[in-house]
Design a protein that fits this description.
This protein is of the alpha+beta class. It has helices at 2-11, 13-20, 71-82, 114-123, 125-137; strands at 26-37, 58-66, 91-100, 104-111, 140-155. The protein has a 5-stranded antiparallel β-sheet. A hairpin with a 3-residue loop joins β3 (91-100) and β4. α4 (114-123) packs across α5 (125-137).
Length: 168
Amino acid sequence: SEEAATVFFNHNELINQYKQHTHEIWTIYLKNKTAVGLWSGRQPFKKSVSLNKQNLLTAVITRATIKLSKLGTFWRYASIAQQPLKEAPGLIYTKGIGEVPLLQMCTFSIWKNAEALKQFAYHSEEHRKAIEKTRSLQWYKEELFARFEPYQSVGIWNGIHQLPQLKI
């Protein structure tokens, strides 16, 4: 819940330790729109019942566990599939996260709208090929794709408020 998140970000010991060693913190509050797949064997996201149809921003989490036998193939192609992100129209922010480095990967991105996300995901030749390879090579042991509505932005990243329209 938002209340639990606020308590966590304001009072959790680990977060407070991070705050002592950083210059910037950016927290984005999200409402789930859709989620397909599993994260460590379960579906952690429930669809929100209070989405704002006027808010076109779309955040995405992709998370996958790569099969050990497919690690080399996956990582050789990953950088190729990511190339179009540098110039993707409508991309506001993206970051790759290694939950268990090299084996479990996660990406987080924020887009101006769902159409910009779809254009990158399905019309970028490199990313489209990555989707095809995912199906044909079956390099994931588990995968999850989730879309969210960012509805609140607290803090800064790279010296600016990345989502000023959501700033509290």
